[in-house]
Specification:
InterPro entries: Acyl_CoA_acyltransferase, G_crystallin-like. The chain is about 30% helix and about 30% strand. The protein is an alpha+beta fold.
């Protein structure tokens, strides 16, 4: 670049000239000064005759529409920062640039140029519809990605969001994600060693999702699941698409990198691809939405050259689904080897949090399971609230209102109360209970009456009872997979729905036998001659009379004995207001899971792959999985529905002789079998606590999985 000779302006006032950036050798835009116009620059080491000398700048005035790049070293060498706001001595000192600037370049149109090391003192806005221009409403590029990578520390305090859409707030290393208006935020606690936070917004024509990554320098620490935040009319011309960043801290906020891209894949495709290809390690994804993370952290992927060729392919001209980089097109950094992980290769990793279930996290998935449809189909057709006897419509509405009215107490949120309420509505046009929400009660009464007129009371009770069993099963999943679970059913309804995934494409079955850990003298001991045996029974393949009958008889006997054990276990938590203990949570979750499994074994209605884990000939754990019908290629997608373990090992975890490891053996056995059958992804869904550090592995009580 050619640098023009600049004349001094000793009395410059920032408001007078709005087309130039002016440099001052004192704070508050005082003292000697000089001004630079668009595409002008100066290297002070070569300009001894200037009023402003090398390493003497203490404030800079920057009018709207202009920006300045300041360099600490001469000849325009790093470190450097891009400024879009006027800056004084204190903030320059915070950047270690007060009286340290050796060269400066000035330009306008900061949105096109400021893609790295951007400084925010108060606010920065990105009019996305203008930046993406013709790609904003381009149907061939429906998914827009916006990556913002921030330098962070313990005092960082800033907000990022759209005026009519989600807001992300970081303060005191606590990341709060606000979705729909009125919803409680999701709160995550960042790792104390993280010094960089990278946010990716996925913007579709009608929906928004985000994910984020914590890192220290170029070393990835944690990567969040994809968080779906709901529907927003992004393609509406009236929608305010200004992405705004507000810095609430006293020190400057540094955006290390800004990348914006438009791709052919929508958010769901991005999420599903990441599950298939990356074994849950989204930072190593081959997809445009997350390949740009590679630009931030060098990816640290364990796929090496194979991954690198696929990442670069997404941005190459030979890719028909090419992702178009809007704001900058930097070269992607080749990944470095990832540090070896000690985690279990069969761990299910949290890959998605769904916050757009309208506070029906227990009942919408239950309806989808019972009616054999998808949650997306229910959400797409259930509003407005018209009278409709389609299974997924009336079942979802009845379960939602019943849980709203009775879900504050496990004493009332039961199958017996549900049946009693249905009979009361049928005979007396009332629920028979004094309830605090007359509007919800009226909705429930009217809905049930309309269904009973069509189906009859017996069939209505039968169908709702079956669907309610699935809702109770979802609550059991919440209890067992959230170590501090305290929410009532109505509280769990308002939590996000977490999806945990295991990519079978990269799964490796362990070479060593499944270890059995036994509690002996308060110590967990592994015996080399003691191991688990795993049996598989797939009801989708032709029957093998002798083998299959023996499997079912043994499974029924085990589940029946466990049911008797739970029935005899003392309980008081259903009728008290005392906080639940770990025993209470484990008891309730085990009771519901075991009853659901036993009921299915007694009268099979669906096709399952059953896994039975034996120890010295006795079944100690049973797991059941089935096809995930929410996918068109359901034969490649399975999810875990039931799991039960001998309650002697669950309810009495500190007793001598208690066993651990059966759940892991079951999961490994299932993963290997499904992999051999060509299945791509195994999933598990459970309501997830909203306040937690980013979960990486699905946790089970007592290390069962």
């Amino acid at each position: 670049m050619k640098h023009n000779h600049l004349s001094p302006n000793n009395r410059y006032i920032p408001q007078i000239n709005n087309t130039k950036v002016c440099l001052y050798n004192e704070d508050d835009f005082q003292g000697e000064s000089m001004c630079l116009s668009h595409e002008q620059g100066i290297d002070f080491i070569d300009q001894d005759d200037e009023v402003i000398r090398n390493d003497s700048i203490s404030s800079i005035s920057i009018p709207n529409g202009m920006f300045a790049t300041i360099y600490k070293n001469d000849s325009y060498n790093m470190p450097y920062f891009n400024l879009t706001e006027s800056i004084g001595q204190r903030d320059l000192a915070a950047l270690d640039m007060d009286n340290q600037i050796s060269s400066v370049i000035v330009a306008n149109s900061p949105l096109k140029v400021c893609s790295e090391r951007c400084i925010i003192l108060k606010r920065m806005q990105f009019p996305l519809s203008e930046i993406f221009a013709s790609y904003w409403n381009n149907i061939n590029h429906p998914n827009k990605q916006v990556l913002l990578s921030f330098d962070i520390n313990n005092t960082s305090d800033f907000m990022v969001g759209l005026p009519q859409a989600p807001v992300i707030w970081l303060s005191s290393r606590e990341l709060s994600i606000f979705g729909q208006v009125g919803d409680e935020p999701l709160v995550f606690h960042l790792h104390p060693n993280a010094n960089r936070l990278s946010l990716t917004f996925h913007l579709n024509s009608n929906s928004i999702a985000i994910d984020y990554m914590e890192s220290r320098g170029t070393e990835q620490i944690a990567l969040s699941p994809t968080i779906e935040l709901g529907t927003f009319p992004l393609n509406n011309s009236q929608f305010d698409a200004r992405l705004t960043i507000n810095n609430n801290a006293s020190q400057p906020l540094i955006i290390d990198k800004i990348v914006m891209a438009a791709s052919t894949e929508d958010i769901q495709s991005v999420h599903h691809r990441s599950e298939r290809d990356t074994a849950g390690t989204l930072g190593c994804a081959f997809i445009p939405a997350l390949a740009i993370y590679n630009y931030v952290t060098r990816s640290h992927c364990n796929q090496g050259d194979t991954l690198w060729s696929k990442v670069t392919h997404w941005f190459s001209d030979d890719n028909k689904d090419k992702s178009v980089v809007i704001t900058t097109k930097p070269p992607l950094l080749e990944p470095q080897p990832q540090r070896p992980e000690n985690s279990d290769s069969a761990g299910l990793t949290l890959t998605k949090l769904d916050t757009q279930l309208h506070n029906q996290t227990l009942t919408l998935p239950a309806t989808a399971q019972f009616c054999k449809t998808s949650i997306d189909n229910i959400l797409a057709t259930r509003y407005p609230r018209d009278i409709d006897l389609s299974c997924h419509l009336w079942v979802s509405r009845v379960l939602a209102d019943f849980t709203l009215l009775f879900g504050d107490s496990l004493r009332d949120w039961t199958l017996d109360v549900l049946r009693r309420v249905l009979m009361q509505i049928h005979t007396n046009d009332t629920t028979g209970y004094a309830l605090s929400d007359p509007a919800a009660e009226s909705r429930l009464v009217n809905e049930v009456q309309s269904v009973v007129r069509q189906l009859g009371i017996d069939e209505t009770i039968n169908q709702l009872s079956h669907a309610f069993d699935y809702a109770r099963l979802n609550y059991a999943r919440y209890l067992v997979h959230n170590p501090t679970a305290t929410a009532t059913p109505s509280g769990a309804q308002r939590l996000p729905l977490g999806t945990y995934s295991l990519s079978l494409a990269s799964y490796h079955y362990p070479t060593d036998p499944h270890a059995v850990r036994v509690l002996e003298n308060d110590q967990w001991v592994t015996h080399p001659d003691l191991y688990f045996d795993v049996d598989i029974f797939d009801t989708t393949i032709p029957i093998r009379p002798d083998i299959d009958a023996a499997f079912m008889d043994a499974a029924l006997a085990a589940a029946g004995a466990w049911t008797d054990f739970y029935n005899e276990a003392p309980i008081s938590y259903h009728i008290t207001n005392e906080p639940w203990s770990e025993y209470d949570r484990t008891n309730e979750a085990g009771r519901i899971n075991n009853l659901a499994l036993y009921t299915e074994l007694l009268s099979p209605e669906n096709d399952y792959v059953y896994v039975a884990v034996r120890l010295q000939g006795d079944i100690v754990s049973i797991l059941a999985a089935r096809r995930d019908e929410t996918f068109a290629n359901s034969h490649e997608n399975y999810y875990i529905e039931f799991f039960a373990t001998d309650p002697n090992y669950v309810l009495l975890p500190e007793d001598e002789g208690t066993v651990r490891g059966a759940g892991s053996a079951a999961l490994h056995g299932l993963a290997r079998y499904l992999q051999q059958q060509g299945v791509k992804v195994l999933r598990f869904r459970a309501p997830s606590q909203s306040a937690a550090r980013v979960a990486t592995k699905l946790s089970f009580q007592h290390d069962e999985f």
